[in-house]
Amino acid sequence: MRVLALLLLTVSLTAQTPVSTETPVQALARKVESSRLRRTVERLAGFGTRHSLSDTTSESRGVGAARRWLAAEARSLAALPGSRLVPFEDRFTAEPGPRVPKPTEMVNVGVVLPGLDPTRAKDCLVVCGHYDSRANDVMDAASDAPGANDDGSGVALALEMAYVMASDRTAVSIYFVATIAEEQGLLGAAHLARRLKDEGMNVLGMVAADCVGNVAGYGTAREAGSARLFSEGVPSQETDAQKRLREALGGENDSPSRELARYLKRFGERYQEGLELVLMLRRDRVGRGGDHLAFNREGFPAARLSETLENYDRQHQVPRVVNGRTYGDSTAWFDPGYCAKLTRTLVGAFHHLATAPEPVRNVVLSGAATPDAVLTWTPSTDPRVAAIVVYRRRADAVAWQQDLVFAPGDRVVLPGAGTDNYFYGVATRDREGNESLAVPPTRIQ
Ligand SMILES: [Zn+2]
């Protein structure tokens, strides 16, 4: 009897001792906290308006107070124990234009996590939320425009990513940025994209997190289990040669931006149970735009992350009650738990992409009018490449359906697969499972 009791005790003790199977990336994602997201959004909404043309002298109201607070946040992020983050500022004068009456000083504010691979000093990732807000009239710089969800939520997401990734040892740099003047014509993002291009930076991927905290639509509609990833199918900057290749391959669904969106879904969903990232086959909501398009215009892959349900009573509205109906983008409608879910997906995906080995180049697809598909490429010289992953999907599918893993090399033959019924992409993978973006064929032979 006594022996049995002892045995039972041993079993129950074993059962109570948790064996940690958490990976380092899961640990990073777990650090995301909704309370910090809520605090950032409340602080930003507290500036009354953050319209790009609003007051810059007040300590408590307007865009100047907001950007000084953001700059202080950037310094705090850099001062965290073990932080590798460096404060970042991109200051410029916006010339008069349709939504800017006179020359106006504009500032993008953020932090950079410098990449550790010296051979890839020019490669980077970017995540942005725009800190400017607007009222009904896009030129109204005086009325209240709390901009809690649009886009206090996106700024909070970018700062929270920086917070949890502050000491992450990535191969390439990550810019975490609060952009200005999205509502005045994507001016901040356009300046940042051009600056990075002028500096010779190669943006592997940019994500605009814009409206990432609303789960309530109209009536009883609620959606907290999904979010949308918008990306262009045909690059807005397409050369004639690229157009001919796209037409020959049927590559309308394989632009670099679309591959980025696929990657964010594939790797991001691992880090948040119960959240689906939906690959939207359009560059943005119908007739509307966002900061990611400014990066597309410079030829960089970019996507927009947004909540699934928007509520237009709460966007671009002066807070007010009309006939019992409440308007305004107030903090009351911001759902920090939902925003935290989206943040975790981007933390996971950004870690993997920023840590992954260099991708292969010059992928050639051959074997047309034969039973086999043959893929050749210029191998990456990155010594960390441990495997080659060939992604495949049937020609009617949106997301990759199969990943075929091969030893490092420069050629794969897929007997019986053929070229016509599938799409292909080639990625590099390191020992920890970090993967580059999938590179679709850049030539047909
Ligand atoms: Zn917005």
Give a written overview of the molecule.
InterPro entries: M28_fam (IPR045175), Peptidase_M28 (IPR007484). Keywords: Aminopeptidase, Hydrolase, Protease, Signal. The chain is an alpha/beta fold. It has two domains: 24-355, Zn peptidases (Aminopeptidase, 3-Layer(aba) Sandwich), CATH 3.40.630; 361-444, Immunoglobulin-like (Sandwich). It has helices at 2-16, 24-30, 34-45, 63-78, 148-164, 187-198, 240-249, 256-268, 291-297, 336-355; strands at 86-94, 104-113, 123-130, 173-179, 202-209, 226-231, 276-280, 302-307, 320-322, 325-327, 361-366, 373-378, 387-394, 402-406, 411-414, 422-429, 443-444. The strands form four sheets. Strands 1-2-4-3-5-8-6-7 form an eight-stranded mixed beta sheet, with helices on both faces. Strands 15-12-11-17 form a four-stranded mixed beta sheet, covered by helices on one side. It starts with a helix and ends with a strand. Bound molecules: zinc ion. The site of zinc ion has 6 residues, from helix 5. Residues 130, 150-151, 182, 210-211 line the site of zinc ion.
Q: Which architecture of the largest domain does the CATH hierarchy give at level 2? A: 3-Layer(aba) Sandwich
Spans where pLDDT lies below 50 across 5 or more residues? 1-13
State the end-to-end distance. Answer: 77 Å
CATH class type of the largest domain: Alpha Beta
H-E order: HHHHEEEHEHEEHHEHEEEHEEEEEEE
Residue share in helices?
25-40%
SS field, number of helical segments: 10
- CATH homologous superfamily classification of the largest domain: Zn peptidases
Query: Rg, please?
Result: 23 Å
**Ligands, ions, cofactors:** zinc ion
Q: What is the 3D form?
A: globular
Q: What's the overall average pLDDT, rounded?
A: 95
Residue fraction in strands: 15-25%
Structural class: alpha/beta
Signal peptide: 1-17
GO molecular function: aminopeptidase activity; metalloexopeptidase activity
InterPro entries: M28_fam, Peptidase_M28
Pfam families: Peptidase_M28
